[in-house]
Design goal:
Radius of gyration: 19 Å
Number of helices: 5
Largest sheet: 6 strands, antiparallel, barrel
Number of domains: 1
Structural class: alpha+beta
CATH architecture: Beta Barrel
CATH topology: Thrombin, subunit H
Oligomer: single chain
Shape: globular
Order of helices and strands: EHHEEEEHEEEEHEEEEHEEEE
């Protein structure tokens, strides 16, 4: 049985145009909360989508065929390429082929290629090569991409790896807001007859919380080095964005700031790892700059 994966709901070929920049500048002039408008999220995703790499896995369990889409992104460090996601995501992936009641149908990288009839790049989850940080600490994993695998992913032209510029000086940033980017589980659609999977890339506004904010709602915030943020509605929209947290783990948390030349700029803050769910929806992310040095070591 073959399986094909595709992305839907985000124009992956779009890039930021002059009109997009102008619309952001107008928002900045008229609205102090410009950063959490839906139109701002659309500009951000157009800037960042080329770094997003998801893994689509289809498997059979009993009579059911199940589709999962795992969030993550690509970085280049010392001329090597890594897929970055949450450590618990890698643990789940490594456990799947060992499960006695699960048969893996397909695992494919979503490389953002938009050419008609183009195949996504296959991935062997039975031989994942990764190093990960303990889930109780940063919960971040670096999956090593082999030379051929990285070449196939990058050659399609839809993926560009993040470089140090994206996380350098993150501590010195002066963000006005943050976003979580990833593939929420409720957006994953499986067509078992056509053996296709579709999903949409989400970009969700979150408000950073300090230790006092957390105490006020009864959360200890024990990990002082982690990023904590509350999911908030888009400006002008009364309801919170719909979000099934499964699938978002491993997605990047980005800070944004105004930019005279681009309208906005982003920095990579961390990798989403866990949640505190209703009545409050709190995102917890491991700080990327605290673990990235490990990936520079020759043994990485």
């Amino acid at each position: 049985m073959t399986s094909h994966s595709k992305q839907k709901g985000t124009d992956l070929s779009s890039r930021v145009t002059l009109s997009h920049k102008d619309s952001i500048r107008r928002l900045q002039l008229d609205h102090p909360d410009w950063w959490c408008y839906r139109s701002t999220s659309e500009v951000l995703i157009r800037q960042f989508v080329e770094h997003v790499l998801a893994l689509s896995v289809n498997y059979r369990r009993g009579d059911d065929i199940i589709a999962e889409v795992y969030s993550g992104f690509v970085v280049e460090i010392t001329e090597r390429f890594f897929w970055v996601t949450a450590a618990h995501v890698v643990n789940e992936l490594q456990a799947l082929p060992k499960h006695p009641n699960i048969e893996i149908i397909s695992a494919r990288w979503w490389d953002n290629c938009t050419e008609a009839g183009a195949e996504t790049v296959p991935m062997d989850i039975g031989s994942i090569d990764a190093f990960a940080f303990d889930e109780s600490e940063s919960d971040i994993a670096f999956v090593r991409l082999g030379v051929l695998e990285a070449t196939n992913i990058l050659s399609a032209g839809g993926i560009t790896p993040l470089t140090e510029k994206a996380w350098r000086s993150e501590e010195a940033a002066e963000p006005v807001g943050h976003y979580l980017v990833g593939f929420a589980h409720q957006d994953v659609k499986l067509d078992s007859r056509a053996h296709t999977v579709e999903s949409s890339l989400g970009c969700i506004p979150i408000q950073e919380m300090n230790s006092s904010d957390l105490r006020d709602i009864g959360i200890s915030g024990d990990d002082r080095t982690a990023f904590y943020g509350e999911i908030i509605p888009f400006s002008g929209e009364p309801r919170l964005p719909e979000l099934d947290v499964k699938g978002m783990s491993g997605g990047p948390v980005l800070s944004i700031e105004p930019s005279e030349h681009k309208g906005l700029v982003y920095r990579l803050v961390g990798v989403q790892s866990k949640w505190f769910l209703p009545p409050h929806r709190i995102v917890v992310a491991g700080r990327f700059h605290r673990v990235v040095e490990a990936a520079r070591q020759p043994s990485a």
